[in-house]
UniProtKB/TrEMBL annotation:
InterPro entries linked to this entry: 3-OHacyl-CoA_DH_CS, 3-OHacyl-CoA_DH_NAD-bd, 3HC_DH_C, 6-PGluconate_DH-like_C_sf, 6PGD_dom2, NAD(P)-bd_dom_sf
Provenance organism: Mesorhizobium helmanticense
Keyword check for Cytoplasm: no
Protein name from the UniProt record: 3-hydroxyacyl-CoA dehydrogenase
Stored PANTHER family: 3-HYDROXYACYL-COA DEHYDROGENASE FAMILY PROTEIN, LAMBDA-CRYSTALLIN HOMOLOG
Length: 322
């Protein structure tokens, strides 16, 4: 298999999206909005007939919020909805599979895609947890296969995890990253295959604790959502968890780990988890943070964070008053 060279990846290309569910529809919008010709494959006739209306509604909403650079109709005209898998992938340079999260289905589907798609096409799965090694390891064209796991919906949440298998070629990885970037997404390379990747492992850690807190009568479902929505989530929409604790503590993240690490270790032990923040791990994390933000710029970044939060709070207040 010869994957496309990222240096020669065309600005506009042919993309196949396999599966007309919510993620497939969203990916079709992402790629068509970027100017690519999209063939969206959906085998179920009833669902296939409804997709055009769904696409129109999503595009109209995006247009209403000023998130399109051209009329919705122009974007919709680039999306063809097809019943045949072979028609969808016939001239595709990139195939984005969005079928249900079932291992046997993905194994069968990728075998078909490997047989039908052009030899140079990259084949990506929107899998939420299943690795490419689990469904593609034995396929002849495995070097062009990987996972691209999006936030949902990707036309609003731009992060996309790019998860290659050990057998995925560097050319396929580079082409995928370039294509996603050109489509307005933010590709994050996951350097090692783990079930659930990064997005769902982080989300799952919070959900596991949330379920336990509700089970133990500590808090209600509504109040968990309130704490995340109006607390953690508000802050994390500006900065991530490492930068959050880095900016919350004088002396940065190393100081935070010294002060709070033992408490977090005890909380983890309550759940049967023994993953202490060892000195070498804290040093590794702190070194990466100090590369990103020297301590002499700490106060400046704190002020920046607060201004961003002020902007979000003002926006929320305006929306509530509207």
């Amino acid at each position: 298999m010869t994957a496309p060279d990222s240096d020669s990846a065309p600005q506009r290309t042919s993309v196949a999206v396999i599966g007309g569910g919510s993620i497939g529809v969203a990916f079709a919008i992402v790629f068509a909005r970027a100017g690519h010709a999209v063939r969206l494959n959906e085998p179920d006739a009833a669902r296939r007939q409804s997709i055009a209306q769904i696409l129109q509604a999503r595009l109209d909403d995006l247009s209403g919020y000023g998130l399109l650079d051209e009329p919705a109709g122009a974007i919709l005209s680039r999306i063809a909805i097809v019943a045949s898998l072979s028609d969808a992938v016939a001239d595709a340079a990139y195939v984005q599979e969005c079928a249900p999260e079932q291992l046997a289905l993905k194994q069968t589907l990728f075998a078909e895609l490997d047989r039908l798609a052009p030899a140079g096409a990259v084949l990506a799965s929107a899998s939420s947890a299943i690795t490419a090694s689990a469904f593609a390891a034995d396929l002849p064209g495995r070097a062009r296969m990987l996972v691209v796991h999006p936030g949902n919906p990707p036309f609003l949440i731009p992060v996309a995890e790019v998860v290659p298998a050990p057998f995925t070629s560097e050319a396929a990885i580079a082409f995928t990253q370039d294509l996603l970037t050109g489509a307005g997404l933010t590709p994050v390379l996951v350097r090692k295959e783990v079930e659930g990747f990064v997005f769902n492992r982080l989300q799952g850690a919070l959900l596991r604790e949330a379920y336990c807190l509700v089970r133990d009568g500590v808090v209600s479902v509504e109040d968990v959502d309130r704490i995340v929505r109006d607390g953690l989530g508000l802050r994390w929409s500006v900065i991530g968890p490492f930068e959050t604790v880095d900016l919350n503590t004088q002396g940065g993240i190393a100081s935070h780990a010294q002060k709070m690490g033992p408490a977090y270790q005890r909380m983890g032990a309550e759940r049967g988890q023994n993953d202490p923040w060892t000195p070498d791990l804290v040093e590794k994390v702190a070194a990466q943070r100090r590369t990103l933000l020297p301590l002499d710029r700490w106060a400046e970044r704190v002020a920046w964070r607060d201004r961003r939060l002020m902007s979000l709070v003002r926006h929320r207040k305006t929306e509530l008053e509207a």
